[in-house]
Amino acid sequence: QAEFAAYMTILSVLGIISQPIVGMMLSKFAEKIRYITIGGGILGFLCCFWFSRSSSLWQFYFGAIFMSMVVPIVTIALSSSIIAHWFAAHKSVAISIVSIGISIGTVLYTQIGRIILESFGWRTTYFATGIMILAGCVIGALLVSPPPSVYGLKPFGYDETKVFLEKVTDL
């Protein structure tokens, strides 16, 4: 259990470092958000495949380095980036709805993962997790859309008067 705690520590610490990097990448390449989502899914699948074939502790720790980049891409950083681009108003409501979805997904995965683990073992569970990550990201990439500016649109709740007044008062 101490080894697993070390794995989670590596994943968490590197996640703290990778979150802002992934966030900047998502902002800079927002119009390519579909490709980033699929890339995150592929990396997630490869990490889980790596874990399913690992036979020593250092391999899990090495995999945690890459998995720390997958987690923000396929969870909160991705959804926050989408919300930031598509909503000028009611962002907190949108973030709350997304957080509910992430929580529901976590609860469902925990139960599905437990069933797979008890029936087939940890290696198959990691492989199945990779398949679920990849499938979720491919489906997500089909549903997600680049920022509204790509289509000549404004975010939901955009108020031109407010933006004009803010610019005038900054002068």
Short descriptors:
single chain; 171 residues; mainly alpha; 7 helices
> What overall geometry do the principal axes of the alpha carbons give?
elongated
Class by SSE composition: mainly alpha
- Number of continuous helical runs: 7
| Unreliable stretches | none
Question: What integer value in Å does the Rg equal?
Answer: 19 Å
Describe the main β-sheet briefly. none
* Mean pLDDT figure: 88
Would you kindly provide a written description of the structure presented here, covering whatever features stand out?
It is a single chain. With 171 residues, this protein is mostly helical. Helices cover 82% and strands 0% of the residues. Helix 4 runs antiparallel to helix 5.
Short summary:
With 171 residues, the chain is mostly helical.
Secondary-structure map:
Layout (H helix, E strand, L loop, with lengths): L1 H27 L4 H21 L3 H18 L1 H11 L4 H30 L1 H22 L16 H11 L1
Helix pairs in contact: 1-3, 2-3, 2-6, 3-4, 4-5, 5-6
